[in-house]
Amino acid sequence: MDLMYPSEAEEFRTEIRGWLEANLPDGWFDVDSEMSDEERKAFNAGWPEKLFEGGWICATWPEEYGGKGLTTMQGVALAEEFARAKAPMRGDFFGDTLVGPTILQWGTEEQKREFLPGILKGETRWCQGFSEPNSGSDLASLKTTAVLDGDEWVINGQKVWTTQGHHADYCFLLTRTDLDVKKHAGISYMLVPMKQEGIEVRGIVQPDGTAEFCEVFFDNARCPKDAVVGGVNNGWKVANSTLAFERGLSATTGWRRFAEEYRLMTEAATANGTIGDPSIRQRLMEFYTKIQILRINGLRNLTSTLNKSKDMGTIALGATNKMFWSEMHKAAMELALDIHGAESMLIDSGPESGSWPGATRDKQRDGYPVSPMMSAFFFSRSETIWGGTSQIQRNIVGERVLGLPKEPKPPAGD
User: Fold this and answer.
1) Cα–Cα distance between 137 and 387 in angstroms, integer?
2) Nearest alpha-carbon partner for 15 in 70, 66, 65
3) Are the CB atoms for 130 and 165 separated by under 8 Å?
4) Is 180 exposed, middle or buried (0-12, 13-18, 19+ CB in 10 A)?
5) Which of 81, 132, 246, 261 is catalytic?
6) What is the arithmetic mean of pLDDT over 346-366?
7) Cα–Cα distance between 280 and 352 in angstroms, integer?
8) Is 49 a catalytic residue?
């Protein structure tokens, strides 16, 4: 694409940059500035309200539903400026990035009026009820059921790896509503209240002591008949829309967090002398090169979005990008440990990591303290799994793009 953004986007970029400079805390842009724990907590508590007052949460939504009605390119400029400033721009990831756009696309007018205001204001917290113990990559094989009982659905089953399940007010849930049709055809997408009898949430403790993932058990839980989004038994199509929002949300900004990690790694290697190791230098340059490929592929993805392209090349780009960045980052965190050595394990004085917000020193709990660097390392191992495993992405490219034979199914009973 032409790398010159349209004038309307650049004018809007100036507005966003000015707002950020006026509203972020003093010293935010200073190179050596560092928040205390109390300052960080105060910022995190007050920032969502500032975002809402500025109209930046879900700013691409239509004005009639509380957004600013931004064009695609204005939305890109917004995301890029927040990424450049390293400023959070979401109230609730699952709400404003996944289920909110899904309700906008598929929901009834009543559903939009009921749920979108809470998402915009950051008042409603959401979780995603897709994966099950035996239905992860093969999501369409899910076993959770919903049976209509008068004006309510009665839900039974289990979900797993449910991020934020212990905090959520609602779950956007995939459940089987017809047992007599092909597995893709009998699924519905429901908006289920989490604070009710019949729902039990159990945290899954990770190696670093955190438990942000949960198991959720549904035992005759209920939701209203009209809580189905996109129509009964149409959930597979609706869910694919949600996954598309998840995978396409950082087309031109996702590379920036990796660029920051590259900068930190290079500075550390220069300071401790590991930059003199030829293999370390080679791996650093491989990381840098792949970051640039990711940046360019993001622009290609943006071009496909602007052109409303739905060809096989677009499908391949989405699958290969997910596979590419997750495997790149897995190798990068191994490089970070090799650069820092044993220092990586020091809880109080070890290196920071810019890879994800959870890698902070205040995440120590349950008697299993871990350094930010090791926490980020653990998390990088999961990135090749969530959002579609690398194996599944390879199948998509092989079968749907290259036309290769489908992966053989295991014999019955195995």
Assistant:
1) 9
2) 70
3) no
4) exposed
5) 246
6) 64
7) 19
8) no
Count of residues in the chain:
414
Q: How far apart are CA 267 and CA 121, in angstroms?
A: 40
Condensed to tens digits (0 to 9), the pLDDT of residues 27-45 reads 888 877 777 778 888 888 8
Label residues 161-171 b or e (16+ Cβ within 10 Å = b): bbebbbebebb
Going 143 to 225 to 165 to 87, the CA torsion angle's sign is positive
Phi, psi for residue 101 in degrees, rounded to 5 = -60, -30
Output the average pLDDT for the chain. Answer: 86
DSSP character string of 246-267? HHHTTTTTTHHHHHHHHHHHHH
Inter-residue contact 265 to 287 (CB < 8 Å): yes
Least confident of 3-12, 78-87, 192-201, 291-300: 3-12
Instruction: Indicate the helix (H) or strand (E) that contains 78.
Output: helix 72-85
221 closest CA partner among 241, 200, 205, 235:
200
